[in-house]
TrEMBL record:
Keywords: ATP-binding, Nucleotide-binding, Transport. Pfam families: ABC_tran, TOBE_2. GO terms for molecular function: ABC-type quaternary ammonium compound transporting activity; ATP binding; ATP hydrolysis activity. This is ABC-type quaternary amine transporter. It comes from the Bacteria. Its EC number is 7.6.2.9. The lineage of its organism: Bacteria, Bacillati, Actinomycetota, Actinomycetes, Kitasatosporales. SUPFAM superfamilies: MOP-like, P-loop containing nucleoside triphosphate hydrolases. The keyword Nucleotide-binding applies.
Length: 379
């Protein structure tokens, strides 16, 4: 195979700008997979729009990879259907689904040059040589790899190799690209950099991407929507903002934001608010209006960044700052609340305005930032 000396002009938006693509790229209905007694994926359903960046996020063993592998065609579902661009692909072989893949292991062919690796999917499809040369050049340019076409994979860094793997998935413009922890093998700095690059390429080309990670921050940075998975179930499928500000379950509140939890009972409602009598302090906390019965026993969740430390006379509870740790732009504080079993509330406040150890403070929170759940809701 010829080596590629890649010198082509920069390419713009080969697949259209984000927002210009419309319609459903992929839908999954009632997807289920068991291994003996283990339910790896339980009735997963979702619709993904063209141009969307969707992430499967969850702890190890929650079913992310199994879901992705069923979509890819490497793992056969027990039941359910997978549709790509309106075509039922549930029983099709992986190569017949027309999807692109990028895995944690780069899986590049070591004996081929970068250009040949990227060209491979086009060569397989019998694309004419001059067209291959043009598209490989375009794709390497997009990924910032112009000039690397003649190198072998071993002559590249890990980050560069992963970019080549990305190019190989991009080069034939599949309707959907599947990525399984593609940055998992890289160090933090490189991961951060490649996250930005992947997002930029996805937006530039209007790509539809399904991405698997267990890293909350990565999911928040990259995604238009995130499916939070737990024990084979999709716990919530929403935008990063909704997941963070309106988590539907205590599990999601904790998984995305390491929420503070308090316990209490609904005392009464007003038009806009629900008032909760807290167990520990006996004080009233005002939450935005929730659909819960008066007297219901509830779990209260508030993200550390949404609590504020004010004057000791203020707030729904008072306490003493036990720890205050400076971490760059924020201070993480632990406030031991006055009262019975004295919970430790975790706060994150902008550095410079942070409380100091030993200080007496009152804790305030915007009612809109208080999430309530029935006490029996687990997680
Ligand atoms: N081939 C298999 N045989 C038996 N059990 C399996 C198999 N593959 C996955 N499982 C089980 O199915 C469940 C979901 O696994 P899966 O790999 O999808 O999780 P995951 O969220 O991708 O985890 P990780 O982040 O560790 O990759 C786990 O309990 C796992 O042990």
């Amino acid at each position: 195979m010829a080596e590629f000396d890649v010198v082509t002009p920069p390419v713009k938006a080969a697949g259209g700008k984000p927002g210009t693509t419309t319609g459903k790229a992929l839908s999954v209905v009632g997807l289920r997979k068991t291994y003996g007694d283990v339910v790896a994926v339980d009735e997963a359903s979702m619709e993904i729009a063209a141009g969307e960046f969707v992430t499967f996020l969850g702890a190890s063993g929650s079913g992310k990879t199994t879901t992705l592998m069923m979509i890819a065609g490497f793992c056969e579902p027990d039941s359910g259907t997978i549709t790509v661009g309106g075509r039922d692909v549930t029983r099709l072989a992986p190569q017949k689904r027309g999807l692109g893949f990028v895995f944690q292991q780069y899986l590049l062919f070591p004996h081929m040059t970068v250009g040949e690796n990227v060209a491979f999917p086009l060569t397989l499809r019998g694309v004419p040589k001059h067209e291959i040369r043009r598209r490989v050049g375009e794709t390497l340019e997009i990924a910032g790899l112009s000039g690397f076409g003649g190198r072998r994979p071993r002559e590249l860094s890990g980050g560069q190799q992963q970019r080549v793997a990305l190019c190989r998935a991009l080069v034939y413009r599949p309707p959907v690209i599947l990525m399984d922890e593609p940055l998992g093998a890289l160090d933090k700095k490189l991961r951060d950099q490649l996250q930005v690059e992947i997002k930029a390429i996805q937006q530039e080309l209007g790509l539809t991407v399904i991405y698997v990670t267990h890293d909350q921050e990565e999911a928040l940075v990259l995604s238009d929507r995130i499916a939070v998975m737990r024990n084979g179930l999709i716990e919530q499928f929403d935008t990063p903002r909704e997941l963070f500000e309106r988590p539907k379950t205590p599990f999601v509140a904790d998984f995305l934001g390491a929420a503070n939890f308090l316990h209490g009972r609904v005392e009464r409602h007003t038009d806009a608010h629900t008032l909760v009598r807290l167990d520990t302090t006996g004080s009233l906390l005002t939450a935005r209006r929730h659909d819960l019965a008066t007297g219901a026993v509830v779990k209260v969740a508030v993200q550390p960044g949404r609590l504020h430390a004010g004057a000791p006379s203020d707030g729904f509870c008072q306490g003493t700052v036990e720890t205050a740790t400076y971490v760059g732009t924020i201070v993480r504080a632990g406030v031991r609340v006055d009262g019975g079993d004295a919970p430790l509330l975790r706060l994150e406040v902008p550095a410079g305005r942070g409380p100091v150890g030993g200080e007496r403070v009152g804790i305030t929170v915007d009612p809109d930032d208080v999430n309530l759940y029935p006490a029996e809701q687990d997680g």
